[in-house]
Amino acid sequence: MNETMSLRATPSSSPREIVTDQPNQRPWLGVQFVCAGAYQRVYRSVDGQRYLARCPRCAKSIIFRVGEGGTNQRFFDVSCR
Fold it and tell me: Which residue, 7, 13, 3, is CA-closest to 79?
């Protein structure tokens, strides 16, 4: 069963890669699932409103919404616990 929950996400202190935006490339976030020890690059939805990341171990999901009052942070640590 997949769940969309308010999982705990914090900005990462150590990005895994240098971010260089390319023209015509969909924006993305780097998400480290601490509980699973897995890193994912998550691309923005086609409508441009959100990023959806799913833990590879427990299948819980987290949505990062795009909009005013947000952050320009590109890397996050997520914990399912």
Answer: 7
Contacts of 62 (CB under 8 A, 6+ apart): 4, 5, 6, 7, 9, 31, 52, 53, 54, 78
Q: Please state, in angstroms and rounded to a whole number, the distance separating the CA atoms of residues 68 and 60.
A: 26
User: What's the token pair of residue 64?
Assistant: 């990062």
As given in the structure block, the two tokens for residue 12 are 């990462």
Q: Residue range 5-20: average pLDDT?
A: 63
- For residues 43 and 51, the answer to whether their CB atoms sit within 8 Å is yes
Q: Which residue has the tokens 């890397």?
A: 75
Q: What is the pLDDT of residue 4?
A: 45
For the chain, give the percent of residues with pLDDT over 70. Answer: 78
Residue 27, CA distances (Å) to 23, 30, 40 in order? 10, 10, 14
pTM for this predicted structure: 0.75
